[in-house]
Amino acid sequence: MLTTPVWDSFSSYCESEGLDPETIRNLFKTDPAALADLRGLETGALSEQEFEAAFGARLGLKDPDGLIDSMFAGMVAVPAMTDAVRELRTSGLKTGLVSNSWSVDHYDRDLLAELFDDTVISAEVSMHKPEPEIYLLAAERIGAAPEACVFIDDLRENCEGAEAVGMTAVRHREPAETLARLQELLSVELPT
Q1: What is d(CA 69, CA 46) in angstroms, rounded to the nearest whole number?
Q2: Distance CA 55, CA 127 (A)
Q3: Sign of the Cα pseudo-torsion (123, 127, 128, 134, in order)
Q4: pLDDT, tens digit, for every residue of 94-118?
């Protein structure tokens, strides 16, 4: 929710490689082995090099070095969303990040420290969304009961996972809609 959609980044990468823009999305949706590669990366079971070799072969790449950075290069921060999180935290609410990702090193650590009371990166805790345990860990780390948490994500299954442990989930599509829903739920005025 803090960045432009990952699917857009994947599509741009595919186009740059002369592939159909939906190649990566289709692999993750239809090929269990491709999804297992991603889950392995996200939980730390696969190193970046192992993921790049395996997934690069699925894409038919001759040289998969740098594949991860290239696939995700199109994701950029959405100022309206980062400003909203900053405002929520400034207002005294606890904020946390739960990310299916392979390393916090790929994030701006200073920005994370500014925006969030705590971060849960899937590869660092060997679990991933939508597993219940990752949501419970995130709530615990910020000192909140799951029922007191509002979780935002652009994927339906991740929202369903949060709701399964008692969180209120907001499925993110557009910043204006998400911000309006947050204002309604939290009674906090947010920048638009």
Answers
A1: 16
A2: 20
A3: negative
A4: 999 999 998 767 778 889 999 999 9
Measured between alpha carbons, how far is 100 from 39 in angstroms, rounded to an integer?
Answer: 9
pTM, rounded to two decimals: 0.90
Burial 154-192 (b: 16+ CB within 10 A, else e): eeeebbebbeebebbbbbbeebeebbebbeeeeeeebee
Q: Check if the beta carbon of residue 165 is closer than 8 Å to that of residue 184.
A: no
Three-class secondary structure of residue 20 per DSSP? coil
105 Cβ neighbours under 8 A, 6+ residues apart: none
CA distances (Å), 143 to each of 121, 140, 146, 148, in order?
Answer: 17, 5, 9, 10
Cis preceding-peptide flag for 130 (omega within 30 of 0)? yes
**Phi, psi values for residue 169, rounded to 5°:** -110, 140
Which tokens is 112 given? 């994370």
Residue-wise pLDDT tens digits, 122-166: 999 999 999 999 999 999 999 999 999 999 999 999 999 999 999
Calculate the alpha carbon distances from 48 to 39, 123, 126 in Å: 12, 11, 15
Residues in the chain: 192
Phi, psi of 104 (to 5 degrees): -70, -15
